[in-house]
Amino acid sequence: MNQTKNSMEIIGNHIKEASSELEQEMVNEFINKIKEGNKVFVLGAGRSGFVAKMFAMRLMHLGFNSFVVGETITPALSSEDTVVAISGSGETSSTIKLAKTTKENNATLISVTSNRDSTLSSLSDNIISVKSEFSNKKIDKTKIAPLGTLFEITALVLLDSIVSQIMKTKDISEEYLEEMHATLE
């Protein structure tokens, strides 16, 4: 079998397995905390940071006041705000530091991680646990792209699926999203 096709099948099967283990109650709470936030900040390091940026963009398309932590136009955090932290291991030092700052400012911290026993999880008000290579020791990482690929891809699919759920509950059309899409590209 072709290595590329094999990797895609492993990733696709992993996403199906992860979706079957998803706790819908935690997803609903996650969405409620986003809706309750005055501003929504997203953060992550490395490739998790790219997933965070994509989620922040989708939130903006949905009409949320969303920001990516670390960008020059990111405003101050207040106790009425929600922070979404994305980290597969839940132990990334920069993410932990920002999570602690979130709690010091009495803001809501929600996380997407594959490690429920992590420092990030212990600081979070809500956790969506995502099955990944960090949590699935049966996966032969030599058969897929390295260094967290399953976590990032699964987190991206999860967060886009959450966007879809928000669209449905807020009765937001694809046309509305198109109107909110960047025109200065």
CATH third-level topology: Rossmann fold
| Helical proportion, percent range | 40-55%
Distance, first to last CA: 40 Å
Number of E-type strands? 5
The succession of helices and strands, N to C, reads HHEHEEHEHEHH
CA-atom Rg in angstroms: 16 Å
Strand order of the largest sheet: 2-1-3-4-5
Structural class: alpha/beta
CATH architecture: 3-Layer(aba) Sandwich
Please, what is the average pLDDT? 88
**Largest β-sheet summary:** 5 strands, parallel
- Please name the fourth-level CATH homologous superfamily: Glucose-6-phosphate isomerase like protein, domain 1
Helical segment count: 7
What ranges have pLDDT less than 50 throughout 5 or more consecutive residues? none
Count up the domains.
1
Indicate the overall shape.
globular
What percentage of amino acids are in beta strands?
5-15%
State the CATH class: Alpha Beta
Pfam family, one: SIS
InterPro entries: PHI/rmpB, SIS_dom, SIS_dom_sf
GO molecular function, one term: carbohydrate derivative binding
Keywords: Isomerase
